[in-house]
Amino acid sequence: MPETVSAPDTTDAAAQLRRRLDTTEAIVGVVGLGYVGLPLAAEYSAQGFETRGIDLDEDRVRRLNAGDNYMEDLDDEAIEGLVETGRLRATPHYEDGGEIDVWFLCVPTPVTETNEPDPAYIEAATRSIAPHLRPGQLVVLKSTTYPGTTEEVVAPILREEGPDSLTLGEEVFLAFSPERIDPGNEEYTTANTPVVAGGVTETGTDLARQALEQIIAEVHTVSGPKPAEMEKLLENTFRSVNIALVNELAQLCERMGDVSMWEVVEAAATKPFGFMPFYPGPGVGGHCIPIDPHYLSWLAEKHDFETSFITLSARINEEMPAAVVESVVEALARQPVRLQNSEVLVLGVAFKGNVNDTRHAPAGKVIRLLHEKGVGDVRYHDPHVDAFQVPTGGNGTIMEVPSADLTPETLRQHEVAVVVTDHDAMDPHLVAEHAPAVVDTRNALDTVTDPALRAKIMLLGAG
Q1: 133, 288, 310, 416: which is the annotated catalytic residue?
Q2: Which residues partner with 117 through β-bridges?
Q3: Quick check: helix, strand or coil at residue 434?
Q4: CA distance 195 to 235
Q5: What secondary structure letter does DSSP report for 99?
């Protein structure tokens, strides 16, 4: 679909907002100061916009207002400087919401215990801003969600709970623009990653484009919120499906016994067209990939359609921690120790390398399953994560997992070290030399070539 061209101003409200954006007089409000919201707020304030972050976590608010950066992907001095200018500040309330020109809703979108979308955070944030609506405001939902959320959840709340005199689409504008944050990615950031936007009206689309272009070089517009919402699900389900493919083939390679899936992917990646390399692993994590396939499955059921391929892929990825645990138990069985007396060291509990993000991290399920199997003690080491908790059952019980330094003594103390996250800070040769046995789910020890050390390593999918 071609890019949406600039729509003519149909109201004084739209013209007013355009002027305020062009002159950086617009005040930007970001609801939710997490992995999406804080980088967004930082970019706007860096471009000269007064930016107010709203978060119910008072510790986040306190730290940010003190110039204390809590996000690994952002520069500490840059955040401190933005706060000192007064252009970036945080608050736990919406009292001055009427002063905001552009609202960005960057709140969590989890699923329920039955894997149905839970829009509660979106609904709460929308209800909080609705009483503060006035002519010339733009509301942009950025939270990953199912197609229809912007028009069927957000829009009705704004209409019903906002001032009666306002007309959505003429005085107040609404759009969806999905986040594209990749934690730990130093090459592609909020500023240089293209984004997609679709408004409820043509004017809403164009205003969203103009607002986003203040900090992002390329904004691709679509015909409305639903294509933008579906586009985000496609991005993440694409990854889920391809990760599931290599995970399933990795398990087949292990059954075959003489083929390494890592070698297979490396060979296939030499093809310069029609192939994109994905790699086996202990499961998927972060906010999007474990969640988005369930959004699509739920949506499909509403339309009497079954997304069997997508659902199967999600299940394969969700079962990978169990496959990892079976490998750990097998490695323990080869050593002179009873399962209940064994000690296992989990290396990395973040969902991906070089970040501190533990949302839906596979390590949580690996640790829980190890305890359920009867492993005596499980500890973890992660230079990016100071504390880690794991739910142990459906009754809300939480287990605090003890951490350990990565030393030769620590490695020798544990019968098995299992690499769940491939942080660069982990020394693969240290692990291979001192751990009695290693289960490597990320090929993080690929530089270890000594045959005696390789004999201690069980590589996921290596045959």
Answers
A1: 288
A2: 111
A3: helix
A4: 12
A5: G
Give me the DSSP letters along 329-341.
HHHHHTSSS-GGG
Catalytic site residue 288?
yes
pLDDT in tens, 40-99: 999 999 999 999 999 999 999 999 999 999 999 999 999 999 999 999 999 999 999 999
Burial 308-317 (b: 16+ CB within 10 A, else e): eebbebbebb
Tell me the CA end-to-end span of the chain in Å, nearest whole number: 45
Of 123, 36, 131, the closest CA to residue 93 belongs to 131
Burial of 339 (0-12, 13-18, 19+ CB in 10 A): middle
Block residue for tokens 């290396």: 347
How many C-beta atoms lie closer than 10 Å to residue 9's C-beta?
15
| Rounded CA separation 101/188 (Å) | 27
pTM of the model: 0.92
Place of tokens 């005085």: 171
Strands 398-401 and 416-419: unpaired
β-strand 438-440 against 457-459: which pairing, if any?
Answer: parallel
Cβ proximity of 382 and 405 under 8 Å: no
In angstroms, rounded to a whole number, what is the distance separating the alpha carbons of residues 358 and 385?
8
What kind and span of H or E run contains 61?
helix 58-65
Q: What angle do the packed helices 76-85 and 37-46 form, to 10 degrees?
A: 60
pLDDT tens for each residue of 289-338: 999 999 999 999 999 999 999 999 999 999 999 999 999 999 999 999 99
Per-residue pLDDT of 220-276, as tens digits, reads: 999 999 999 999 999 999 999 999 999 999 999 999 999 999 999 999 999 999 999
